[in-house]
Amino acid sequence: MININYHQFMRLLSSLVIFLLMASAPSIRAATTAKPRPFTLVIHGGAGVMDRKEMTPEKEAAYHAALEQALRTGHAVLKTNGTSLDAVIAAIKIMEDSPLFNAGKGAVLNADGFVEMDASLMDGVTRKAGAVGGVKHIKNPIELARLVMDKTPHVLLAGDGAETFAKEQGITLMPPEYFITEHRKAQLERVKKQEAEKAKGKKGSSMELPPGNLRFGTVGAVALDQHGNLAAGTSTGGMVNKRFGRLGDSPIIGAGTYANNATCAVSGTGHGEYFIRCVVGHDIAALMEYKKYSVKKAAEEVMLKKLPALGGTGGVIALDRMGIFALPFNTEGMHRGYIRADGKPVTAIFKE
Fold it and tell me: pLDDT at residue 20 above 60?
């Protein structure tokens, strides 16, 4: 047995503490000098039938400008070390406030001539989610989805219940006239006429849509922040001339929106009934988790094979934790864009 007195013990203890501090110094320095991770934001403004002949240079420029504004707004959040959730909301709000897209201000009209909007949001870190469906007076439904996630134990609130909750939370409400544009009224009349003519012929199934109804202006965003966390969000006015009370895939977690740090963040745009049946968002993530697919391979497997096999059309944006993303769609075009840490926005509409 080794015998040491009190003073010898204290000297040994001091030496041990100094040794441990010196040994840990490199890791401490590494932690304090670690560079922020690169970040990425990807958005979409809807997919569907897009005729180049109808897309005037002025209209095309307006779409590119709106997409770029959304990208720069979300980028400003990420650049200042903001969260992916905040960046997604910031980008989507820009598109909700634009009459160009089928969300918020530009939402399409249902069969009764008014808007019913849906939105959802999911955090890839905790996999918490919030969603709203069938709201009629909410200026920015994506904000209300965030409050459902943060302020309630629920995931989805719909209809009058969601509107009551919005009033309790002080969310900005707008009168019905704010959402009803001349463009959307003319669109509704055109689609009603097309469907009436189709009904006379009694051709096709109830799942099919006339050509004028195949432009899905749903908006969405996925983001990777400097902390390496993912988030996804989607907002829409749904389908032109839809029945009162119809909900699509946008407020359904796992269908139109999904985020999981272990795999990817996804937001979709298209014929919602098919996206729900295919559980598009979760299916992409599941292929990555269980089959170890890349985000590109998984997104293309679902969007270019599985969904079309059932007759579904549309597109998705999908982003993984490495900042790699995919933007597959099986329609003529999809309003889309991305921006990385360098701050250079890239936007596109057709299959160029």
Answer: no
> For residue range 190-219, what is the model confidence (pLDDT) as tens digits?
999 988 888 887 654 444 444 444 456 799
Query: pTM, whole model, 2 decimals?
Result: 0.86
CA distance linking residue 119 with residue 219, whole number of Å: 9
Please state the domain count of the chain: 1
> Domain holding 182: CATH number?
3.60.20.30
Domain presence at residue 122 = yes
Clarify whether 218 is annotated catalytic: yes
Domain containing 110 equals 40-350
Q: Got the DSSP string for 9-56?
A: HHHHHHHHHHHHHHHHHHHHHHHHHPPPPP-EEEEEEEEE---TTT--
Q: Which of 218, 234, 263, 347 is flagged as catalytic?
A: 218
In a domain, 332, yes or no: yes
The arithmetic mean of pLDDT across residues 155-162, rounded, is 97
